[in-house]
Structures are given as C-alpha cells and as structure tokens.
Design a protein that fits this description.
Chain B: One of its GO terms (cellular component) is proteasome core complex. Chain B: Keywords: Cytoplasm, Nucleus, Proteasome. The complex is a heterodimer of chains A (290) and B (222). By secondary structure, chain A is of the alpha+beta class. Chain A has helices at 2-6, 21-26, 31-34, 71-81, 141-162, 168-179, 224-234, 241-258, and strands at residues 44-48, 59-63, 94-100, 103-109, 112-114, 117-120, 126-130, 133-136, 190-197, 200-207, 212-214, 217-221, 266-272, 275-283. In chain A, α5 (141-162) crosses α6 (168-179) and α7 runs antiparallel to α8. Chain A is globular. Chain B starts with a helix and ends with a strand. The longest helix of chain B has 22 residues, at 67-88. Classes of the chains: A alpha+beta (290), B alpha+beta (222). Chain A binds chain B through residues 43-48, 50-51, 78, 82-87, 89-90, 112, 114, 117, 119-120, 123-124, 140-146, 185-187, and chain B through 2, 6-7, 9-11, 14, 16, 102-103, 105-112, 114, 132, 134-140, 142, 152.
Chain lengths: 290, 222
Amino acid sequence: MALQEVCHFYDSVPSSSEHSPVALALEGCCAEYRSAKVGHSLPVFYLPVMKSQPVCQPWKTINLSTMPSSTSSVKSFMLAEESKRPFDLSHGTTTLSFKFQGGVIAAADTRSSCAKKVECPSSQKIIPIHSHLVGTTSGTSADCTLWKRILSYKCRLYQLQNKRTLTVRGTAKLLSGALFPFKGTELCVAATLCGWDHTGPALYYVYSDGTCLEGDLFSVGSGSPYAYSILDREYHFDMSVDEAYCLARRAVYHATHRDAYSGGNVDLYHVTKEGWRKIEDRADYTSLEG
Amino acid sequence: MNKDSHSETCLLQFRYPIFTVLALAGDDFAIVASDTRLSEGYSIHSRESPKCYKLTDTTVIGCSGFHGDCLTLTKIIDARLKMYKHANNKTMTSGAIAAMLSTILYSRRFFPYYVYNIIGGLDEEGKGAVYSFDPVGSYQRDQYKAGGSASAMLQPLLDNQIGFKNMENVQQVPLTKEKAIQLVKDVFISAAERDVYTGDALKICIVTKDGITEETIPLRKD
C-alpha cells in the first residue's frame, strides 16, 4: 500500500524491540506523517430533533471528532429526542474467548436473530481487526460491525503514524473511549478483543457502558451462563491446542443447546504469535454429542 | 404528555413491511424479484409499484419497508453513485455499494431508515452476489434472501430448495438460470396465496454479464 511504503512501516510480528527509542529514531524520514490529522472520516450521526426545530431543519448532526467532552450533555440530548423504533435489531448470541499457553482462542455461534425470527443462520460474529487481533461481537450486530470497522481504521492510522502496532490494551482503551460518548443511548456493543502483542497473549472485554476489563476467560451473550459452566469446569492455562479447540466448541454447543437465541455452527479462531487463523471446519453439532 | 404524543407521531410514520422482495445468486447471474402491490393497512394504494431499482449495469436493489424511506434511500444511493463515478471515473462494484449502503444506514443509527434492503448483482469476478441488510446497516453476503411481509414463508422454502439445508442423500446441483427463474415464480405464486400483501404482479430483474433484463408475471389480484 502506498502510504505504508512512504511511512516505511511494514506489518510484522510485534516484538519488544519495536518499542526501543533507537529503532524509532532511525526511521526519521516521515516526519510530516507523524502529525497527520485524523480528519473528518469518523461517522457523522444524524439525530432527530423534532420538538423545537423548524420543519425545514429536522436534523442535528453530531460530528464524533468535535464531541463535547462531557457526556452528560450528549446523553440528555440523545435521550430527549430518541424516537421509538417499530422493529427490533438483531440480538442474542454466545461468544467466548480464553487465553492459554498456546495463544488465545475465540469462538462464537453463528445465529443472528431479530425479535423471534432467525435473520441469518450463518453470520460471522468474530471479526479480524488486524493481523494479530480479532474481536468477538455481541449486542446489536450493526453496532458491532460498524464499530469494529472504525476500530480497524483507527488501529491502522495509529500504525502508520507511530510505526508500531497498538497493543491490545491500547486498542481496548481506544474502543472504550470511542463508545463512551454514547453511554446511555441504545447502542449496544459487547466485544472481547483477543490478540497477541509484545506482552504475549492478551484478552480484553469492552462494553458500551464503559466497562473495559482484562481477563483470562470471557463469555458474552445470552448463552454465556451455559458456556461459563462448561468452561469453568475444564479450563486450565496449560491445555494443549487440541484440548482448547475441543473445549471451545463444546462450550458453544452446550450454550446453543439451551439458549434459544444461539444456534447454527461454531466459528473458531486461534491467535498466536504468527497471527490469527480461522479453524476451517465449521463443526456440525451432531458430531459433538457426548 | 408532550413526549408521548411526540413518540406516537414518530410511530405513525412507520408501517410494517408490506411487500415482498427476494434475491438469489447463481454462478454467473443474480435475480432480484418483488411483487408490485403497494398497500397500507386495509387499502391497496397501487398495483403497479415495483420495488426493484436498477443502480448500475450490474447491481439491482430491492427495498422493503416504509415506502417513503425506500424512495429517499434510493435517491441518496443514486446521488452517491454519480459522485463516485465523477470522482473515480469508474462504476461502483456491488461489494462497494453494499459497504457504502451500510455506512449510509448506520449514520441514521438513532432514527433509522425503516427499510430492509437486499442488493443483488455480480461481483468483480462475474459471480452472482446477494447482500442483505437490516435497517441499521448490518450486512452479509448470502446466496439467497427473502425480505418483507412474506419473508417468513419464503425463506424456509429457499433454504430447502437452494441451500439444501437439513436434507440427507441429496445431490447438490448448482442452480441454473432457468431453474432459478422458475423457482422464483413458483415461490411468489405460493406467497400470493397466503399473504394478503403480496399479489398483483411479479417483477423479476435478471442480472447477467450482458446486462439487466426484466420480466413481469401476473399474480393473484384479490
């Protein structure tokens, strides 16, 4: 990519040597890109303001980059003018992720439901963000997909501006900060970020109410209690890779067995030092009995 | 009091999806079909109001849901396509249109366009592609999708006939264009029998590398 070549930054395995000040000082040729502004590419949201505005101007736009710093004003502004939706948005899922000695595993079901119907039996709930980071999505699927897209673009810009990949902790902070102005609105994003950075395997849980937690094991969604019961019993950090795959699939299967809003197949991703890898065979549930 | 009447006013602007749209993709073609009846509540406003809109030579969109939002959304997409053509000197591909539509829909996250979109077209390699959306912009590439009032009746039939789901010992033959068109006609005739909002006529847009052809087939008018 052109910008990547001009900035002399190439995707590579993040290692602790990339953070040394010597390495950064040696690549001094792209000074003008270091202070490049993010610009106005963040989404501009339209909010209905119908009560006191004249008919010809029924919209107010809020630009994310010029958001007011206090969230209470944004929240009251949004809550006062939210209109009732006559339809439901997609909800209901089981996703889980855990760290172990061989990396980080992320697993999810593939059913996307909307009110009482199954909108899509084979949706993708684990989204790669960059070569060493995947995010599981839970909550409203549109919110999750779009915010992950925004997160990928922000991570990429950070890479090009700072010549190193953002750590998973930094990415979680970035996502949490980006979602914070929307606290109290109907936005619902419950994501776990599973990645590998210079500190090794890393796992963070971000929720749109502002929660940002680090942990070894997370399960998110309507089927998570059932998945937790399987995971808590059999999880240990020193598992082998095959044991980890088997545990993840079994936990999702048991959750889909009991939760009406989870179903379909199991998607499984494994993040290691070399990057993320999708474990190709989408398991059919009949083979997971017992 | 004021707030209640305000939200009631908002609700009155919306109606439940009252027509049916279907799209399916084959190896080198895509089909987007919709009925042409426009109803509201107990009345029929029009019998000749098709819901498939041609966007480019390789892409057709079918919008079901609130008709006002469908019209506005297609106008916005047309304008954005023209802007892209003038800025980049090439037509947008189906995948790019789908991604753009997703961001257009999400910009109205807190007061959405009440439209369930389905885009059918050919991708860059010439293979059929169907992209289905929810009202706030979540989208997915599928092989087939039914949307609108009769979607709950049509989708399982498509799952069985095109997706060969939950069938054992069946040979998975890829769909030919003629068989697909016949299937679409049969499926809409069945939908018109059981769904009051589907009927009058069926308009089918067939997208191939030679362009877009249209067919109209009469359905039940009662």
